[in-house]
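Comment thread on ticket #2218

A.B. wrote:
> Attaching the input chain for the structure job we discussed in standup.
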Amino acid sequence: MVHNIDLDMDSIPDKVEDVPEEITTMLATIDTALMQLCSSLSVKFTDYASKRTAKEEEWVQAERQYSGSLDIEDDKKLRALGGSRAHSSPPIVNITRPKTNIAIARMQDIQFPLGGNYNFILEPTEVPELRKALKDDTPVEEEQEPEEMSMAGTPMAPMDPTAEEGPPPEPTQAPTIADIARSIMSEAKEAATAMQTQIRDRLTEASYGKKARNSMDDMCRLGTAVIKGPVHKQKIDRKYDRVPTSDGDSIEALTLTERTIPSVQWVDPRLVYPDPDARPGTDMEDIFEVHLMTARTVSKLASNPAFMRERVRKVLGTEPDISSLGSAIQSLSLVGSAGTRIQNRYAVKEYHGSIDKQVLLDVGLISEEQKEDSLFLPQGEVWFCNNHVIRISLSPLEADDSVPYFFCTWEDDKSSIFGHGIPYLMRHAQRVVNSSWLMLLDNAGLTAGPQIVLNREMIRPASPEEGWRIEPMKVWFMTEYGANVQEAMQFVNVPTQQESIANITELAMTFADIESAIPAIQSGEMPSGNNTLGGVAMVLTASHIVQQRVSERWDDNITVPLIRRFYDWEMQYSEDENIRRGDLNVKVGGATERIDKQVKAQDIERILGLAGSNPDFQKHIDADAAFRELVATTRAGDIILSLEEVARREQEAAAQQQEAPPDAETIKAQAAMLSAQVKQQALEINQQMAQAELEMNSQISQAKLENERIRMQATQQEGFMKVQLAQMDREQKLLELAAKGEMTQSELTQKLQIAVMTEETKRILKEADISQFREELSIKREMGTGI
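C.D. wrote:
> Ran it. Output below, let me know if you need it in another format.
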């Protein structure tokens, strides 16, 4: 329960003598107790603020570095040197901002890949005994009590004395231990699912996704993210109802309903002052949070029943004062360099932690017995401003009364509960890049033109008004007749150092990749070194592992404890019995659990693919279980029916088939459909046979054509050989005649030429006949007339 006190001063009589003495004494005691509490908390706040000065300086430097300003020390040195840059901001290369933005985007993508307002799953705790019981088919003993049977999912029907007597019911099969275990697990699963839906609705109503992303921005820039919750929030529901009037009619009237809901808040880490002795992973004893409020915002606290109305009025009677915050907060970018943004703000401080028992007894929040109990260490909440306590209450959660603040760091600082961000890790690399870039610009300016050396004794300007400035087309007079002008004016070029300075800049940017563990490739830049496919994959894998490590830290430090506190809140305050009947021990999984489920889904798909390729493997796989596990790894896991529901539906389908035989019309329709299918199949078979016959005839025709072509080629070769033999025989006879002297040499030559021409003519005519025959065969084959 939430315990508050509210002193309604309007109910106290105007005259002091009309107030009973016991009420006056009680009010004086309460006022004194609250003054002492406010004084002690103010001293503690001042002590906490003084012990985090070093961390505040780190935040200031991180904000300057992220925004693109010089390091504070470098800026002081540059201004001390004077010159043109003493009163201006020099140009620098900001390598911190893009890497920080990459880290922010990567964290948001891991935790909220699809946006939304939740990043968790809720499951019942694994019970090994129930897992073992699922394999036990031993029937439950008959002596089991009805209540136990009901828990096993098989409730016994009550006896109805008015029921007519009839044949005894058929004996039902006794449930097994596996049935009871399955029923218990199903009930726990349903309760966890209902609780998960309820908490997700709460987080959506509180815009948790937006606030978590703001905290991730703080974690990457400042090194620490702070989430607060659940906190009580008063919500007013507005709706119009029909209200009857005096004349019998009805009108629409606005109805306001106030209810308390749990909410979650994003907290700026620069406005929280935790226990300075707390370290990462340890419990905080107490913590302060500062709310910078205007007078209007403070006045709205009076309408909240948790705050003391008259004491809020006293706070508004004082002037806004931020001196208690110290000078460190003035230099934060949150409030501006001059601190003008909070000059008209009230510094309302919220405290969570242990409260003195005597104070709680005096204000009536605990009893005398609780005060004397040394094991009772009350934790509470106190709001105060300008030496006035405006709210005091005990912890609203009975199951968990720790401070409702959750911290997550990008890089742990072992000396503080606050961590280090990307700018802090890159501070040295950014400083080297700034220095080398300024040196590069200075050297470029010096080497843009020569240094000019003038001898004033040998020359003077033609116009005294122009002075000694070097200008185009300027006229100079020699003061010595016959002197060498080269001796009077000389130009000296400053050597360039661009390449060596640029190497320093590149080396510093390489170190920035190493120190931040965020390579340039994540911003779309291809690495200059190992830019092969394997090298790029290795770089991305290494960077993702580092960021997944931070994501796991977010789950461990924020998601899991926050959802557990929401679970405790619902178990204590919710009126929905469906979510309160579950196990108090739940398994909360964050984004890392979601990644594990994705890996599990990939493994299942790979195993199913392997089993599908080998029948011997399929007998080792439970296809139904594999499908259920695969769907459970997705966000659509809620559509899976329980095993009992699947069995019930199968039984109903089987019973319907047995009880309702098909009628004559249905059988006739099925027969007609079957006949049509048979005819269709016969038609398809005939078409396939005709197509096969056509293909066979085509192949036979092609084979005949090929045989004819080979025969014609052989005939042609044989003819050629006969022609050549005849020609050789004729030539031999002509030579014999010439040898006998019967023919002259010219006659012999003429006869040989005639013989050659005759044979060539025969060969050409033979080839023409063969070509014509081939064309006829081709035409016949295309036209389908056979050969």
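A.B. wrote:
> Thanks. Noting for the ticket: The longest strand covers residues 224-244.
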